[in-house]
Amino acid sequence: MDSGIYREIKREYDLKRQRKIDTAKRFKEKIYLENPVLSKIEDEINLLALNTTKVILNADEVTKQIEQENLAIKLDKLNKKYDRELNKIGLTRKDFEPKFDCERCQDTGIVKNENNYAICSCFSQAVINETYKQVNINKLSEENFDTFDIGFYSKVADVEKYGIEKSPMENIENIRKIALEFCNHIDDHNQKNLLFVGNTGLGKTFLANCIAAEVIKKGKTVVYQTAPILMDQIMDYRFSYSKTGNEKEQYNKIFDVDLLIIDDLGTESMNNHKFTELFKIINTRLLKNKKMVFSTNLSLKSLYKEYDERVMSRLIGSFTICKFVGEDIRLKKKLIQAKKLT
Ligand SMILES: Nc1ncnc2c1ncn2[C@@H]1O[C@H](COP(=O)(O)OP(=O)(O)OP(=O)(O)O)[C@@H](O)[C@H]1O
Ligand SMILES: [Mg+2]
Ligand SMILES: [Zn+2]
């Protein structure tokens, strides 16, 4: 891992964590100030524990046991009293705990698995976001399965217009299910990758964002990039003479990351080198069982024209093709906005 980026993110984590701890502490102090009975009980608890420790220190075995049992009973009583007082003002002990962004690592960036320490997936993802300058990732709080709205898709089927029997709404419901299924089985060998095809403004990028958010939530890492930028980043790497650790790291992530999302496939200018690279990415990831989601607004026919046989045979063979149909949502949203203004 590039140590510069690593250090910078670690610093941000430490600051963030400290901020959350301070906020929790301030909240507790405020509540104690308003409810002195709470701090009184807490003092009693502390004092009791301290005094008992002193007695136990020099006591014989029998006295020790009696004192310990006494302490347990008294502590239990005081703790219950404390909880009752909290309950009166509508709080629980949990309300005094810091609200960390990541439950797994409590915003330390490190998790303990049995006796080993490992970097938490949220930290790995933060490093990926920084190395790839993943701007889309910021949109994940807006575009996710909770904000997914099927109301933008028509209930009326029209075979001539859309080329399918189903209505756009039925169609998107089905695609949404496929996408959720994909997220839930991201590690399965049998789970195919996803290829989103369809005209502009039909929600392909939106659904790709939903998938990214869901997969990150599950503690997996995601590289999300548009095809032109990704291909440029790869070409820069392949044809630069002096490769820094960071560049190498970034390049290798494309093969290793749990999910690779390439948006707007077909908008990049292709050449033979790029075909080879794209093929290498797809092939390596298929062999490693690492999943991919691609989106394009080219038709399959145009894709065949743009990409060579090797790439296409893999796209067709190992991807579930989801065809988006309907009316341009971008346009619909603009019209709604314009109506609001008049
Ligand atoms: N299911 C949805 N719920 C709410 N808003 C949506 C939904 N799908 C798409 N949108 C909104 O519609 C607009 C267009 O969607 P999006 O960018 O995903 O289309 P696209 O298919 O990726 O288009 P393009 O091919 O041009 O990239 C965006 O503003 C997006 O937020
Ligand atoms: Mg898009
Ligand atoms: Zn974490």
Description of the structure:
There is one protein chain. The protein has 342 residues and is α/β, with parallel strands linked by helices. It has 13 helices and 7 strands. Strands 4-5-6-3-7 form a 5-stranded parallel β-sheet, sandwiched between helices. A two-stranded antiparallel sheet has the order 1-2. The mean pLDDT is 90. β5 (259-263), α10 and β6 (291-296) form a beta-alpha-beta unit. The chain has 2 domains: 3-96; 132-341, P-loop containing nucleotide triphosphate hydrolases (Rossmann fold, 3-Layer(aba) Sandwich). It binds adenosine-5'-triphosphate, magnesium ion and zinc ion.
Structure characteristics:
alpha/beta; binds adenosine-5'-triphosphate; binds magnesium ion; binds zinc ion; 2 domains; elongated; two-stranded antiparallel ribbon; five-stranded parallel beta sheet; single chain; 342 residues; 13 helices; Rossmann fold
Cofactors, ions and other ligands in the entry: adenosine-5'-triphosphate, magnesium ion, zinc ion
Whole-number tally of structural domains: 2
Distance between the termini: 53 Å
User: Count of helices?
Assistant: 13
By helix and strand content, what is the structural category?
alpha/beta
| Architecture per CATH nomenclature, i.e. the level-2 architecture of the largest domain | 3-Layer(aba) Sandwich
Strand order of the largest sheet: 4-5-6-3-7
Q: Please, what is the average pLDDT? A: 90
Order of helices and strands: HHHEEHHHEHEHHEHEHHEH
Point out poorly predicted stretches: none
Using only CA atoms, what is the Rg? Answer: 28 Å
CATH hierarchy class name of the largest domain: Alpha Beta
**CATH level-3 fold name of the largest domain:** Rossmann fold
Question: What sort of overall outline do the alpha carbons produce when their principal axes are compared?
Answer: elongated
At the fourth level of CATH, the homologous superfamily of the largest domain is: P-loop containing nucleotide triphosphate hydrolases
Main β-sheet: number of strands, strand sense, barrel status? 5 strands, parallel
Number of distinct beta strands? 7
Amount of helix: 55-70%
Q: How much of the polypeptide forms β-strand, as a percent range?
A: 5-15%
